[in-house]
Design a protein that fits this description.
Blueprint (H helix, E strand, L loop, with lengths): L5 E10 L2 E11 L4 E5 L6 H8 L7 E6 L2 E2 L5 H7 L1 E4 L11 H5 L6 E2 L2 E2 L1 H14 L15 H14 L4 E5 L7 H16 L3 E5 L3 H7 L2 E6 L2 E6 L6 H9 L17 E10 L7 E6 L3 E5 L6 H8 L5 E8 L2 E3 L4 H7 L1 E4 L3 H5 L6 H7 L12 H14 L15 H13 L5 E5 L7 H16 L3 E5 L3 H7 L2 E6 L2 E7 L5 H8 L2
Parallel strand pairs: 3-10, 3-11, 6-9, 9-10, 15-20, 15-21, 18-19, 19-20
Antiparallel strand pairs: 1-2, 1-4, 4-5, 7-8, 11-12, 13-14, 13-16, 16-17, 21-22
Helix pairs in contact: 4-5, 12-13, 12-14
């Protein structure tokens, strides 16, 4: 094999006393796709950030095309040909698609921005991804899936020599994913090296050449063949035998906690939806992208207004004008977008947990020791890999999600709504989220789970309601729900 385009030797990273990477070495060659796997908190994003210039290693060295490589910023890395596509979107909504694709490196003509060339080149990259949207359109208002494809189009326009894809399909549907895979294969054939981070094992087996596994910040396993059995890969990630992914789902009680009757949105996202959730029941909501699932649960949680219909909790009809109204009644929601809607990422973990529980603290004056004890108890209870004084922005996506869950579950709610609870979370960490969900049901909480992952929705739900284009097309019992029956209803 030829010399690697990128070579890492003994990379370590510490935040104070917390060591998140420990002596990691890695080579990536031209024209290969290397899967980088590990549980959330294993160090994948930190290592990617070091390669892409957004973080500096505490120890170790890197080489790029045989020369010393220590980028002081993402701009320096991009200039070398190293591009990171983040899991979290970083587009500017008020700018056009073309402006986002070429921001900071505008094509110029006679001293001014050549907008015609910029739009033409951006449109070419969108076409490569089968995204047929005018490049002159503003990014604001586009779906998450389309915004993710625009992030990928930015990288394609950079003519990268090394591309790092961090959970690139987390927000994509099947058609968009296939278009991305087509481009990955094309880039590989052109000699581009690719580091591919994903929690979706079917993708790893389809698109990657070899697999590198991190656990607790260390490189613990290499698999030269991506055809290695999934169970073997996952067990190396979690460091234990994986007996099961989904825990046994308990039977609910006969008591109705939440009743939704004829709920209709103000903008047509969903119409005339009715269902009940029992105490101790996990009620799944399935459907394709654009079916109205998120809009429905946001309305139930008081975040969006409705045109008609009712929400009843424990026999009391609610008049929800805001999320605060729902929270006060005992309905909490873990949103799909944890960074923008679930956390203040620039604040500390402990502060995020306390913010959601100020009325539960029992005192007008919050002493630092009181806040720390409260936050530490929640961190321990929900397995967050972090300290209360650590910034939420320093956490992996999975641990950020656990913080969002922890801050709401410490309120002992009656209804918990989880919208895409394991989006961007690896297989090992997902098992911990499922344990939390089932534990809530066992304690008598009514749980609603929205998920695009069919295996997940089938694995954790007592019943599944399917939406298609805002319409309720059916509710399936666990015994009759399978991938075929759900998809038949989702495509009506």
């Amino acid at each position: 094999m030829t010399d690697p385009v990128l070579s890492l030797k003994g990379i370590s990273k510490r935040y104070g006393k917390l060591e998140v990477l420990k002596n990691v070495s890695l080579d990536v060659h031209a024209g290969e796709v290397v899967a980088l796997l590990g549980e959330n908190g294993a160090g994948k994003s930190t290592l990617s950030g070091i390669i892409a210039g957004s973080r500096a290693p505490s120890e170790g060295s890197m080489a790029w095309l045989g020369q010393d490589y220590a980028p002081a910023s993402p701009r320096e890395a991009i200039d070398k040909g190293v591009v990171l596509i983040h899991q979290e979107l970083k587009l500017l909504p008020e700018l056009s698609i073309a402006e986002n694709v070429f921001i900071g490196r505008w094509p110029m003509k006679n001293g001014v921005v050549d907008r015609a060339q910029m739009v033409r080149r951006a449109q070419e990259q969108l076409s490569r991804l089968n995204l047929h949207i005018p490049a002159t359109r503003k990014v604001g208002g586009l779906s998450t899936a389309n915004q993710q494809l625009i992030e990928i189009a930015k990288a394609l326009a950079l003519n990268a020599k090394l591309l790092i894809l961090d959970e690139p399909t987390a927000a994509l549907g099947g058609v968009e994913t296939e278009a991305l895979f087509e481009q990955v294969r094309k880039l590989r054939s052109e000699g581009v090296g690719i580091i591919y981070i994903s929690h979706r094992m079917d993708e790893i087996k389809r698109i990657t050449d070899r697999i590198v596994v991190l656990r607790d910040g260390e490189r613990v396993q290499d698999f030269a063949d991506s055809a290695t059995p999934v169970r073997t890969i996952v067990e190396s990630m979690v460091g234990r035998s994986l007996d099961r992914l989904f825990p046994p789902v308990p039977d609910p009680t006969s008591k109705t906690v939440l009743k939704v009757d004829g709920l209709t949105s103000v903008d047509g996202a969903f119409n005339d939806v009715s269902f009940e959730v029992k105490a101790g029941e996990i009620f799944g909501i399935a459907g394709l992208i654009g079916a109205g699932r998120t809009e429905l649960v946001r309305a139930i949680a008081g975040a969006d207004p409705v045109r008609s219909g009712t929400v009843t909790l424990d026999g009391e009809q609610l008049a929800l004008k805001s999320p605060n109204d729902a929270i006060a009644k005992g309905i909490v929601m873990v949103p799909e977008d944890r960074k923008d809607q679930g956390l203040v990422v620039s604040h500390r973990i402990g502060e995020n947990i306390v913010y959601a529980n100020l009325d539960k603290m029992g005192s007008r004056w919050l002493m630092p020791a009181m806040k720390r004890r409260f936050a530490d108890a929640a961190i321990k209870a929900f397995g967050v890999k972090g300290r209360s004084d650590q910034l939420a922005s320093d956490l992996s996506g999975g641990n950020q999600q656990k913080v969002v869950i922890a801050k709401w579950l410490t309120r002992n709610p009656r209804v918990v709504v989880l919208d895409e609870p394991t989006r961007g979370i690896d297989v090992g960490a997902r098992a911990g989220i499922y344990d939390i969900i089932v534990g809530l049901a066992k304690s008598g909480v009514a749980v609603i789970v929205v998920s695009s992952d069919l295996e997940e929705i089938l694995g954790v739900s007592n019943r599944i309601m399917v939406l298609a284009q805002g319409r309720q097309t059916g509710i399936l019992n666990r015994s009759e729900a399978n991938d075929v029956s759900v998809m038949e209803l989702a495509t009506q």
